Amino acid sequence: MVAKGDMVYASASDAEILEKGECGGAVTALLKYALESGMVDAVLTVKKGYDIYDATPVLIKDPAELAETAGSLHCGTLLLPKLIKKYLDGAKNEKLAVVLKGCDAKAMYELAKRKQINLDNVIMIGLNCGGSVSPVLARTMIADKFEMDPDSIVKEEIDKGQFIVLDKNGEHKGIPIDELEEAGYGRRANCQRCKTKVPRQCDLACGNWGVIGEKAGKATFVEVCSDKGAALLEGAAKAGAIETAAPIPKGIEIRGKIENAMFKLADKHRAAQFSALGESEDRLKFIMDETSRCIKCYQCIENCPICYCVECSTKKPHLVTPGQVPPPFMFHLIRFSHISDSCVNCGQCEELCAMDIPNALFMHSLQVEMEKMFGFVPGVNMDLPVLALVEEPTERKRLSDTGDDQIYNIF
Ligand code: FAD
Ligand code: SF4
Ligand code: SF4
Ligand code: SF4
Ligand code: SF4
Q1: Cα distance between residue 96 and residue 203, in whole Å
Q2: Which ligand 5 atom is nearest residue 291's CA?
Q3: Are strands 172-176 and 162-167 parallel, antiparallel or unpaired?
Q4: pLDDT tens digits for 92-138?
Q5: Which residues have any ligand 5 atom within 6 Å of their CB?
Q6: C-alpha to C-alpha distance for 402 and 411, rounded to whole angstroms
Q7: Which residues are CB-contacts of 375 (< 8 A; sequence separation ≥ 6)?
Q8: Is the pTM above the cut of 0.85?
Q9: Ligand showing the shortest atom-to-Cα distance for residue 338
Q10: Residues with beta carbon inside 6 Å of ligand 1?
Q11: Which ligand has an atom closest to residue 114 CA?
Q12: How far apart are CA 51 and CA 107, in angstroms?
C-alpha cells in the first residue's frame, strides 16, 4: 500500500509515453490514469506550440491526447493557477489534475486560501524545478552563446548543470548554466533566487534528481506528499499504467544533496541581486527610477496570482490620477502594499512587463523582509496572509467567511 512519505522510481508502461516522456513518462501516465479512471474530469498542463520556445497551456479531456504533452519545456514560464481562477471557475465545478512547478504550487495555495481555487477538486502533480529560461532571452542566448540559429533548435534539455540544445541537423551543444548566467543569460532572475525545488505542497512531487543506476534518465523520482497523491500512485500502479521500483538509497542521498546545493546557490543569488538594489533611501530611489518607465499596461496586475480584485485600487481616481503615463508612484506602492506579504516569486510581473521593469525582484526583496518580520511564508500551507494595512483579525475573518475577492476593502 502506498502512503504519504513514500518515495518510488516510476515510469510509464505505455511504450509511446515512455519514449516521449522526459524521464520515463510517469507524469503523463499518471495524468492519463487520473482521466481514464474518472478521478478527474480534465487535465491542465502545457504542450509544445509553434516551437520549443512556445509552451502552450492545454486543457485535455480525451486521454488519447495526453501523449503529446509529454516532455519538459524549460522555456515554459507559464503560471497555470491564474488560468484556473480566470477561465476554469477556480475548479469549483469540475475535478482537475494539474502539473505544477514550485511557483505554480505556491500560487495554488495563495489562491486557494483566498477562496479563488477549490483545492478539494484538484490533484496537484508537482515537478521538481531547477529553473526555467525566458523564451525571449533563450533565443538571444542560442544565437550569441551557442552560435546556432534559434529557429533550427528542435530539442533542449538541462542535464548535469548544462543547458543542452539539439538542432534539426543533429548538432548537439551544451554550455554550463553557471557560465551562461555569468554572461547574463540562463535561468530567469527569479528562478536563480527560487528555493522551491521539490514542491512538496503538491500531492506528488516528481523529478529526475536521485534516479541513478540503470533507471537514470528512464524513470522519475516520485515523492508522495499527500493521501490524494498516494491514492493516485497506487491506483495507477494497480491498473498497470505505471511501473514502480524502490529508489536506490544512494539516489535518495544524492537527491537531498542536490536540493541543499540548490538552496545555497539561491541564497547566493538572493544576496547578489538584493544587494544590487542598494539600501533604504537608495533602494527606494532605484525603484522609483526604474518604475518611471512604466506605461501602465497592467500586465503585472493581469498576470500576478495574488492580483484578482474586480475593483483594483490602482484604477481608483482618488488614489492614482487617471490618464497619466508614467502613472504616479502610488500605482506601484499599491501593489507593494497589497502583494508583498504573499509574493510567490513567480516572475510573471517582470517577464511580461512591457518595459522590462524588474518588478518581481522589487516585490520578492520586500517579501523576504516581511517574512523575517512576520514569519509568514507564502505558498507553503493554508495559513492566511499578513494582510498589511488592515485590521488583520477582522479582515482575515471577513475574507474567510465571505470568500470576497476584494482583498483590501479599506479605501
Ligand atoms: P513527462 O511524462 O514527460 O511529463 C512532463 C509533464 O510536465 C507534462 O505534463 C508536461 O506538459 C509538463 N510540463 C512540461 N514543461 C512544463 C513547464 N514548463 N511548466 C509546467 N509543466 C510543464 N526535475 C528535477 O529533478 N530537477 C530539476 O532541476 C528539474 N527542473 C525542471 C525544470 C522545468 C522547467 C521543468 C518543466 C521540469 C523540471 N524537472 C526537474 C522535472 C523533470 O524534467 C521531469 O518533468 C520529471 O522528472 C517528470 O518526468 P516524466 O517523464 O515523468 O514527465
Ligand atoms: Fe522553477 Fe522556481 Fe523558477 Fe518557478 S520560480 S520556474 S519553481 S525555479
Ligand atoms: Fe509573481 Fe510578481 Fe505577483 Fe510576486 S508580484 S507573485 S513575482 S507576479
Ligand atoms: Fe492587485 Fe491590489 Fe489591484 Fe487587488 S487591488 S488587483 S491586490 S493591485
Ligand atoms: Fe507598468 Fe510594467 Fe506593470 Fe505594465 S507591467 S503596468 S509597464 S510595471
Answers
A1: 13
A2: 8
A3: antiparallel
A4: 999 999 999 999 999 999 999 989 999 999 999 999 999 999 999 99
A5: 294-300, 353-355, 357, 359
A6: 18
A7: none
A8: yes
A9: 4
A10: 21-28, 45-47, 55, 69-74, 76, 99, 101, 127-130, 132, 206-209, 220
A11: 4
A12: 27
All 3 cell numbers of residue 148?
A: 546556432
**Backbone φ and ψ of 225, nearest 5°:** -110, -5
Q: Which residue has the cell 530567469?
A: 188
Residue 234 to residue 240: CA distance in whole angstroms: 10
- The CA 342 to ligand 3 mean position distance, Å, reads 8
Q: Write out pLDDT tens, residues 314-355.
A: 999 999 999 999 999 999 999 998 999 999 999 999 999 999
Cell for 355? 518595459
Q: Which amino acid is at 6?
A: D
Task: Show Cβ contacts of residue 393 under 8 Å, excluding neighbours closer than 6 positions.
Answer: none
Reading the block at residue 376, the C-alpha cell is: 509568514
256, 226, 119, 345: CA torsion to nearest 10? -10
Return d(Cα 286, Cα 292) in angstroms, integer. 10
d(Cα 313, Cα 391) in Å, to the nearest integer? 18
Q: Which residues of 41-54 are buried (b: 16+ CB within 10 A; e: fewer)?
A: bbbbbbbbeeebbe
Q: Which residue, by CA, sits nearest to atom 8 of ligand 3?
A: 304
